[in-house]
Amino acid sequence: MRRTRKGPACLPWALALLLAIPLQALAADPLPSWNDGPVKQSIIDFVTRATTEDGPGYIPPEERIATFDNDGTLWQEKPVVQGAFLLEQVKAAVKEDASLAKRQPFKAVLEGDVALLSSMEEPQLMALVAATHAGKTPDELAREARAFFQTARHPKLGVPYTQLAYAPMLELLRYLRANGFQTWISSGGGTDFMRVVSEDTYGIPPQQVIGSDLKEKFDEGNGHPVLRREARLDHVNDKAGKPVGIEQHIGRRPVFAAGNVRSGGDIQMLQYTKEQPRPGFSLLINHDDAEREFAYQEKNDASLKAAHEGGWTVVSMRQDWKRIFPEEGR
After folding, report:
1. Which band of pLDDT confidence, cut at 50, 70 and 90, is reported for residue 9?
2. Residue range 52-63, pLDDT digits in tens
3. Which site from 51, 208, 270, 315 is most exposed, i.e. has the minimal number of CB atoms within 10 Å?
4. Per its UniProt record, what InterPro entries does this chain match (predicted)?
5. Domain for residue 188, yes or no?
6. Which residue range forms the structural domain that includes residue 232?
7. What does the pLDDT look like over 168-188, one tens digit per residue?
């Protein structure tokens, strides 16, 4: 019987087949909830350049800082989760001071105005925080926040808020960390509030959460010293306040940052990341999927315009994400 030769003659064909397969397909897909396309590929290309030693885009591990907005970027923001939490806080405050029930925005919050909660910007939310959190210690605030997360459900989707983190963004966080990036939250929400769930939800430890804060003071507490929040804002980590907060907490400019379209709150952070001696990667989430989540835009499209001018990568939730939430069918 004639034997078929296998060996060197077959190598050109085998090599051609190998080269025709994208390198990404040779390994497990690091972003399985992302549709294949230019957005997904641009993320992978950036990470590959950043981690290829001696390459032109190499970034030393100590400089691989990635910052993420929270509401609307890592999880849903209709309504803003801390706004829902503040509703419970306002109810408790009114029990102590009934006059608050006649003042705005307390009155609208008490009436369960979800539209108002959804439209409130970070400074308005933080003003409510100042009115409801003054005098409390971080431990007291943490206990209240944990109690909220144990029972609260999204008014439309009917599941705990912590189940509404975006599956594609959870994968992105893990992918970056697997490649030596530090992942930080830089959000306009309250630092204390986000720290309660950041590690379990995103794998981001509490010390890597930057948010808006009240001023605080040291209280000796009769031999048991504590910190207490005051009814005064210390830092609002929104818009131009985000780069300030990043510098104060990290001391390095991010090389990767992600935000979303809503009120222009992430523009300055994304500009700060993109425009530097070593160009960073700026990612903007566009909420354009009314069927699986929500569809909304800014009135002036400021974030999308800034993305076009700055060369940022824009994510279409409808086109670029295979699924939005970890549990299919939501």
Report:
1. very low
2. 999 999 999 999
3. 51
4. HAD-like_sf, HAD_sf
5. yes
6. 30-76+162-213+225-320
7. 999 999 999 999 999 999 999
